[in-house]
Design goal:
Growth Hormone, Chain: A, globular, single chain
């Protein structure tokens, strides 16, 4: 039987998983440096020292550990993508992997912030490294099969933007919940130490994330609404086929630049708010909340813009706006406006690029994979999304390596050099991504469907 177009109820059920894994991954992506290399406030360092705070060959240890975990994560992407493509499980080609990985994924999202020793020790470093590797393994086992369902459910072109929009909303909701970590920590800190308050917050996030990740596992009707076919090719052939697609290359490079810049702002918002603007750490939650609420309000206008001008021009505009935001942040100390005004200008203006990059890239991948299937007769939905996740994770990995190392140059009010350099470099990444994406051939007008 041919696959049916998914109703809105099934799209919402599917999107609940996005909220879950967005929240489960928030801590590792945005709070690891904050916890293990905290900002230096006037009242002292926020958390005790758990791992070595210096550098190894000029690279901060926390950055090296996180980079290694992300590199391992990137290597496993195509392997798991191919396993998922070749799966013939009766439970569900993709849901089988999601069911296996959801619980350990949520568990290790908490354990990475629970070092066994009370002070700086080698044991804590080993624990963190092992926990990071296991966290990323189970994250990949969930996310790669999950994202492959976007292309398989979106076998009608109108459904691709629809699914991408709804999942982007739930991703933003997961991110917004995660961004309340700073405020929740402050609330629990009234009765607990800073460390215990932070760990309590991470434990709550892990439980909430698990519930949402299990929703599509139990309630999504994969066999009824997903267009799937049996795949026999091995991982090497599939990877080569994906990266030989000439239209995928400029998208992948631009996407890499975007994730480099985005990880800088996600990891650095606590530093930008406290060090560059002089606000308490709770303002970081307000900044992220305003940004993502604004992006949610702009989801429908972004859909209209895409229909009128295409995905390519919309993404280019988003890169330029992000460049402007990072440029303003870099020179925030010398601008003839108050930091309070600048705070709201930056948080509100970031809504547009967040909306664009939240919706459009997944729809672009669906366009590319259906064009690829039309040209070659081969279906590699899992591998295309694995390849996209590979570039995303490489960008995050490099940012996790570079950002904490820059902080070693200065992360205090008296010496903010490292923080300022991070915003400047993020602006360069955005401009580079914009330039590369100009070579992408827009498929928006082709309305591909098979």
């Amino acid at each position: 039987m041919p696959a049916e177009r998914p109703p809105l109820s099934q799209i919402i059920i599917y999107a609940m998983g996005q909220l879950g894994w967005s929240l489960a991954s928030f801590g590792a992506a945005n709070l690891l440096v904050y916890f293990y290399l905290p900002p230096e406030a006037s009242t002292g360092v926020l958390f005790p020292t758990f791992i070595y705070q210096g550098s190894i060959l000029g690279i901060a240890l926390i950055g090296l550990i996180n980079f290694s975990g992300r590199l391992f994560d990137a290597i496993t992407d195509p392997i798991i993508g191919n396993w998922s493509d070749r799966s013939v499980s009766k439970f569900g080609k993709r849901k089988k992997f999601m069911a296996i990985s959801a619980v350990p994924f949520a568990l290790f999202s908490f354990l990475i912030f629970f070092p066994p020793g009370n002070g700086e020790s080698t044991l804590n470093g080993i624990w963190l490294t092992a926990s990071i590797f296991l966290f990323y393994l189970f994250m990949t086992l969930y996310v790669i099969p999950y994202t492959a369902l976007i292309g398989e459910m979106g076998h009608h072109p109108d459904d691709r933007m629809r699914i991408s929009t709804v999942t982007s909303v739930t991703w933003a909701l997961g991110f917004m919940i995660g961004s309340n970590a700073y405020a929740l920590q402050a609330f629990f800190q009234q009765q607990q130490s800073a460390t215990a308050a932070f760990q309590t917050t991470m434990g709550i996030f892990a439980l909430v994330a698990l519930v949402f990740m299990l929703v599509p596992v139990f309630f999504l009707k994969e066999s009824r609404y997903c267009r799937q076919s049996k795949v026999e090719t091995n991982a090497f052939h599939a990877v080569r086929a994906v990266f030989r697609n000439r239209n995928f290359i400029p998208f992948a490079i631009a996407d890499l630049m975007y994730w480099l810049a985005l990880t800088f702002i996600q990891s650095g918002v606590g530093y930008y708010v406290t060090i560059l603007m002089g606000f308490p750490k709770e303002q970081a939650t307000l900044f992220l909340t305003i940004s993502f609420l604004t992006s949610l309000l702009l989801y429908w206008p972004v859909n209209i813009i895409v229909r009128r001008v295409g995905k390519k021009k919309t993404v280019i505009a988003a890169f330029l706006v992000f460049s402007f935001i990072f440029g303003l942040t870099t020179i925030s100390g010398v601008l003839p406006i108050s930091n309070q005004v600048l705070f709201y200008v930056l948080s509100l203006s970031s809504g547009f690029p967040l909306a664009v990059f939240g919706i459009v890239p997944m729809a672009i991948i669906a366009d590319i994979l259906y064009q690829h299937e039309s040209d070659t007769g081969e279906q590699h939905a899992g591998m295309f999304y694995a390849a996209r996740n590979l570039t995303m994770k490489m960008g995050i990995s490099l940012a996790n390596l570079i950002f904490p190392s820059l902080l070693l140059l200065g992360k205090s009010v008296q010496n903010p050099l490292g923080v300022q350099l991070s915003t400047l470099l993020a602006m360069v990444f955005c401009l580079a991504g914009c330039f590369v994406f100009m070579r992408y051939r827009d498929l928006s007008k082709k309305h591909l469907s098979i």
